[in-house]
């Protein structure tokens, strides 16, 4: 039995449209399923836990939504054996990108039903679990601005979710002020002046495909960190096109770090986000929880033997 977790509102209504497509495919293929429409980010974990407790033969929990919807159910799936499948229906869809899950619904459904599993790490920060990245500073402020904006709804409505982030970057560039930050990676502290952002990544991209930590791998037990510091506004603006291809990492105002735990303390309050959802403005302590989540991904077939394989259903 497959559990489909649907956020009708994700991607400005793409969640519901995608579910209708997927439901027709499931009926045509006579795949056994149950559909769970989640009401909100806060109640989703409880709804999923309740559904999972009702039977023992779940083969997968397949989310139809964006990164925020996936974020809302991580607590229910962590170390539970039931693998996470993803049918992307958000504006950013960086979880799908990070696991090479196709963006088209039918191909994503095929991936979810193939039962090839990757053991992925989770990030633990601010009392929450995150799958893609915990970002603080400029880009968290971009997300806070975009999520509360009219242009996100408008862009989603015309199928241009990525455009909303580009508008958000320009909007935030005008108002944001960099400040000093201390970053402690596996006990080693470093300080950076005029810091714009600190991103702690499990997957290579966020913000709709921006490759902020291109070397990040979800199953390596390590956090990849990108610190942008000492750049002028013009340099920061010129950095964004390079992030699309992940070519920013060698720039003089970019420092890349890697470790198992990372503490981030800005000199002034700065927003943080996990999977694009707000984590508050307190200093951050981010810890890697190795192999805490099974993910249905085409990467599993190509990954190192012993860390991946067929999923075993469990309750
Ligand atoms: N499980 C859920 N059920 C209902 N609403 C949710 C759930 N999880 C999050 N939400 C709300 O729905 C909004 C949109 O969901 P989601 O983040 O998945 O899509 P998106 O913002 O369009 O895409 P992305 O996160 O990939 O950019 C979230 O910002 C949050 O307010």
TrEMBL record:
Keywords: ATP-binding, Kinase, Lipid biosynthesis, Lipid metabolism, Magnesium, Metal-binding, Nucleotide-binding, Phospholipid biosynthesis, Phospholipid metabolism, Transferase
Cofactor(s) demanded: Mg(2+)
Gene Ontology terms for molecular function: kinase activity
Annotated PROSITE patterns: DAGK
Pfam families reported in the protein's UniProt record: DAGK_cat (PF00781), YegS_C (PF19279)
tRNA processing among keywords: no
Entries under SMART domains matching the protein: DAGKc (SM00046)
Domain annotation DAGKc: ranges: 1-129
Keyword Transferase: yes
PANTHER family the UniProt entry points to: LIPID KINASE YEGS, SPHINGOSINE KINASE
Family: Belongs to the diacylglycerol/lipid kinase family.
The protein, known as: Diacylglycerol kinase family lipid kinase
Organism: Paenibacillus tritici
């Amino acid at each position: 039995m497959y559990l489909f977790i649907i956020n009708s509102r994700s991607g400005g209504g793409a969640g519901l449209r995608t579910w209708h497509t997927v439901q027709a495919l499931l009926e045509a293929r006579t795949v056994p399923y149950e559909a769970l429409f989640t009401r909100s980010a806060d109640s989703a974990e409880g709804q999923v836990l309740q559904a999972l407790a009702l039977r023992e033969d779940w083969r997968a929990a397949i989310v139809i939504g964006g990164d925020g919807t996936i974020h809302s159910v991580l607590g229910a799936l962590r170390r539970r054996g039931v693998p996470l499948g993803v049918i992307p229906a958000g504006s950013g869809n960086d979880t799908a990108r990070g696991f090479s899950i196709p963006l088209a619904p039918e191909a994503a459904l095929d991936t979810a039903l193939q039962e090839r599993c990757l053991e992925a790490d989770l990030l633990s920060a601010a009392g929450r679990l995150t799958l893609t990245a915990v970002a603080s500073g400029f880009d968290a402020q971009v997300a806070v601005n975009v999520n509360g904006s009219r242009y996100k709804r408008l862009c989603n409505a015309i199928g241009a979710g990525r455009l909303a982030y580009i508008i958000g970057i320009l909007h935030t560039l005008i108002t944001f002020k960099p400040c000093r930050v201390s970053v402690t990676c596996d006990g080693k502290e470093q300080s950076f002046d005029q810091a714009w952002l600190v991103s702690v990544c499990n997957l290579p991209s966020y913000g709709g495909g921006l490759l902020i930590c291109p070397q990040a791998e979800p199953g390596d037990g390590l956090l990849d960190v990108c610190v942008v510091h000492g750049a002028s506004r013009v340099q920061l603006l010129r950095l964004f096109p390079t992030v699309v291809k992940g070519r920013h990492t060698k720039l003089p105002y970019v420092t890349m770090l890697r470790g198992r735990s990372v503490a981030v303390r800005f000199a002034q309050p700065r927003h943080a986000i996990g999977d694009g959802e707000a984590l508050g403005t307190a200093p951050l302590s981010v810890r890697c929880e190795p192999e805490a989540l099974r993910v249905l991904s085409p990467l599993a077939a190509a990954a190192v033997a012993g860390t991946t394989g067929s999923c075993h259903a469990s309750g």
